[in-house]
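Lecture notes, unit on protein representations.

Consider one protein chain, 298 amino acids long.
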Amino acid sequence: MNERIKMTDETPLLTKADPNSPALKVEGLGAVLIKAGTAFAGMSFDADTAVRIDGLEPGTDYLVQIESGAPVAVKHADGGGAPCLGGFHFAPGGNAEARGGGDSVPAINPFSLWDRDYRPACADPRGMALVEMPGRKFWCDIYLTGVDCSRNGTSAFGVTIADGDDCPRDSDGERYRRFDYSTAAAVMAVHGKGLLSVEEFFAAAFGVTEKTALDRDPKTTGLDAPRTSRFGIMQATGNMWIWGHDGDPDMPRASMFGGSWLSGGHAGSRYAVVAYYWPGSSNDSLGARGRSDHLQLG
């Protein structure tokens, strides 16, 4: 895990009634509870217990910590000084409930809840949502990859989208010359992530308003409610093509998914060019989105 939530020999053990789900749950739009049957940092929660939250900012990741014997939510950037149970993302809009996209009412994304034993396998859980598909689970970046992902992580709200015109910076702060398939894969690898397979993209993007696209270059990561997915993936389709692969387990081939603002009525959760697209391409309508395996302990 990252430096704010890393495990040490002194880290309190987490026990919970159901190891197959996070120790946290959402109530309404902006309340988080620790589930009954959870024990952590010397505290036992016999009943569902509210986490103290002193205000929420859309597009922000929060940690749930134990401070002075009580659970409290703090911004990820401000956390790290107390035992961390888990966290969540407060999104700028709600998830799709059917197949018509989401809404513009800020809400905690229920699929972003994680705890120390139920989380992305990558080091940094910020800005990710758990996607369930037949037979397995994986975590998907809520936001498109940004230019300054070495500082903000690969999934951050309100940042410049990385593409062929605005290439991402590497860990030394130098810009890549291109944002082609190999560069996108390399950027994700630095963060312990990968690119989506075609099947994973289909699952993550389900729920968007199909056959629609934004009418302009989105430029920055954020809310485009008609194209928010069931799992709260923002700008999931019709904003930027994203680099991915065909899913071959031995020799995955470059693919692209979702369509860009130039795609009009072709864009959607099933719009893909698979095992065909030229991996050396780099342009202003082609970006990326990361994914991580699911890690479940206990």
